[in-house]
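Quick one, T. Sequence first:
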Amino acid sequence: MTAPRSGPRPLALHMATSSAVWTSSLAALEHARNGLLPWSAPQRSAANAIQTAIGAADPEALAGAVAAESTARLADFLAGIRAYHAHPYRRVLRDLPVLWRQGSARVLDYGGTGRPVLFAPSLINRSYILDLRPGASLMNHLREQGLRPLLIDWGDPGDAERDFGLEAYITQRLGGALEASHALAGGPVPLAGYCMGGLLALSAALLYPERVSGLALLATPWDFHADRNGQAAFLAIGASAATAMRLGNPPVPIDLLQAMFAALQPNMVQAKFRRFAAMDPDAEATHAFVALEDWLNDGVALAAPTARDCFMGWYGDNLPGKGLWTVAGRAMRPQDLTMPAFAAVPTRDRIVPPPSANALARALPDATFIEPRAGHIGMVVGSKAREALWQPLTVWLKGL
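Structure tokens:
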């Protein structure tokens, strides 16, 4: 029996946040009328126009309209969540051969007779974003193009990974997966990393250059203070508190991680579910939404030392951007890469700001560089992913 959906996760937080935002609108109305609400500089001219319009409106009529709009938006949000929970789409699980396994990590073999290519996804999200569904699978595309894609599935941290930091994941898990891929190919293989997985892949390429014939970095952050410094500081502080207050060093649960990221854009979830409420349940776009939302809600816990390394070392101290990040005693310098590289920096990325990813792409000494007009996830599984990323990546891989 298929488990019922419980997202968007954490659902209680999203419900409480949305209710608080809309029910507080009436309370904020008088402050807006008197010019007491804080506005950022880019929004100030619009704020002045809004304040003028509020001042000219009948107070009682305006209050009634705001209350009605707040109620309608909350109803649409709830309708979108109910429609998502009830939607019949379910991902068909694939029984893929396992090339290599150690601890909770394994390498899935998508088959084919061509050159093996190893992909390293993020540790936080499930690897199947690269094989989301028919028509939205980079792995299938590469196999159809004559390559043999291999995908690391990190799994939830088990007893063996409980005390793993980033270095252990890179040297023990990614290093082992790369060694197995090298043995399968009978020589060095292309290595690709997506998002956080790109930093792991870069490190492995620097530590084990004899196993890697080329490095592809897809929407990979590097300078964590290049943009949105306040958000980076928030994540660092949140992770510090989350890991310090939990006895026994257990993994950081996915709901806590999701809550931290949701706090950066508190209105994004309610906005997309309100739109979803009005969508045709049988439309292709609706199935795509549900498939992606299922993936987003199927996150992975993070070993506490890894969480500290990521959020405090990367987001807080910006060690990669400052040239101070080390793995196994070696500085991770993209300038030292000795193999061809490929860098994809999506221009509409709201998860990894382009200035952060560009800092890495510019530092690579021998790189093919593309800027897909897409978002962080849309570049990989969106309706234009084939033209935006899949095809140029395939051309580069075949040309190695």
